[in-house]
Amino acid sequence: MAISVVMPALEMAQENGKLLAWRKKEGESVRKGEPLLEIETDKAVVEIEAPGDGVLVGVTAEVGAVVPVGETIAWLVAPGEKPPAKSTMTAAPTARATTVTPSAASSKPTQEKTAAATPSATAQISPKARRLAKELGVDISQVRGTGPDGTITAEDVQGFADGKSGGSAAAASSATAAAAVSTAAGGGEPLSQIARLMAERTTQSWTTVPHFFLVQNVDAGKLVETQKKLGAGAAAGTAPSVTDVLIAILARVLAKHPRMNSSWANGTIHANPDVNISVAMAVKDGVVGAVIPKADASKIADISKLRRELTERARAGKLRPADISGGTFTLSNLGMYKVDAFTAIITPPQCAILAVGAIIDTVVPVDGKPGIRPVMTMTLSSDHRVVDGARAAEFLAELASAIRDPEKYL
């Protein structure tokens, strides 16, 4: 039986994926679990495994194509078997081809094009656009769909909310064209898919999520001592880092403050059953969030091993879907870059992110006298729809206490 190969959805807000490479050629045999293709999303370059055994046939997406989530791009069939007819090549009813030939485009009735640009209560709307409309309180029946076949896109919703009365896609197209001209003339730098979508997501988070911030300085002396103790005798390159110890402490404190581990979705608060720490990692074109699942129940040695593997895969552009999925809280540590303190932007639907600066020798009161202690600044960004200041302060206070006495929590 033929197995469809579709553009996967790696996150809630994903609408498309860019095909970067086929790891197998058409006509080659493939085993289930073998690397089959690489795609680029707003989070990372991800390697996708084959969903089953078979011969790769019916490839419809070329390298560089941007394909809607759910669209069938190839088939895995038994030797000698033919792929299903073209009419059944789409796995999802809303999936569409990304290109149209001039003859096909010219054969569409003018009335259909006009209808696509008119607000309609029954118009198709992408999942991302529907969620954004709920976030912004936009009546989708008043939004003009400028996507394929009149589909309402997230850009249409945002444009309407900004008072543009739809047509944002056309404006975006003009902006894109202008950017292309500017780039060709040496006036700008084109963005990769990751950088472009990261810019969109951070802008959306900053403009739609009601952030508030709490800052606390904490004595990190015991944290450093614990990290050194855990690394004593470890083989080169295997000793836990300060980030690894922080992940373990943070996860255990989050387990005691479940509201800080919750998500905001569709106007409601969702409690996450697991504590999955997303670690912000710098890559060539931006930042990815690689996930340490169930970190609250994991040993530091296991956290350290997985974090190193994720870092290597992120830098090599070989992250897997599971590596970037399911994060419930993000840790961003820029201490290794000698940053004293910074403020981070929340990654929806998560409700908070912790920004950690460098550990710096600082003059502080010690037993009533001036002394020098290693101090670290933590900045907690929280979504006020999910938590209030008191809850966030209680969480940050206990986290600081845990950092001052790590062995009590590990």
Could you please describe the fold and organization of this structure?
This protein is an alpha+beta fold and 410 residues long. The chain folds into three domains: 3-88, Beta Barrel (OB fold (Dihydrolipoamide Acetyltransferase, E2P)), CATH 2.40.50.100; 103-198, Dihydrolipoamide Transferase (Irregular), CATH 4.10.320; 209-408, Chloramphenicol acetyltransferase-like domain (Chloramphenicol Acetyltransferase). Helix content is 30%, strand content 25%. It has ten helices and 16 strands. It has helices at 102-107, 110-116, 127-136, 154-161, 168-184, 193-208, 221-231, 242-256, 300-316, 389-404; strands at 3-6, 16-22, 29-30, 35-40, 45-49, 54-57, 66-68, 72-77, 211-219, 263-265, 268-270, 277-283, 286-292, 329-333, 352-366, 369-383. The strands form four sheets. It has a six-stranded mixed β-sheet with strand order 9-16-15-14-12-13, with helices on both faces. The longest helix has 17 residues, at 168-184. The radius of gyration is 24 Å and the shape is globular. Mean pLDDT is 82; it is low at 87-122 and 164-184.
Write the SSE topology.
Layout: E1 3-6, E2 16-22, E3 29-30, E4 35-40, E5 45-49, E6 54-57, E7 66-68, E8 72-77, H1 102-107, H2 110-116, H3 127-136, H4 154-161, H5 168-184, H6 193-208, E9 211-219, H7 221-231, H8 242-256, E10 263-265, E11 268-270, E12 277-283, E13 286-292, H9 300-316, E14 329-333, E15 352-366, E16 369-383, H10 389-404
Parallel strand pairs: 12-14, 14-15
Antiparallel strand pairs: 1-8, 2-4, 2-7, 3-6, 4-5, 6-8, 9-16, 10-11, 12-13, 15-16
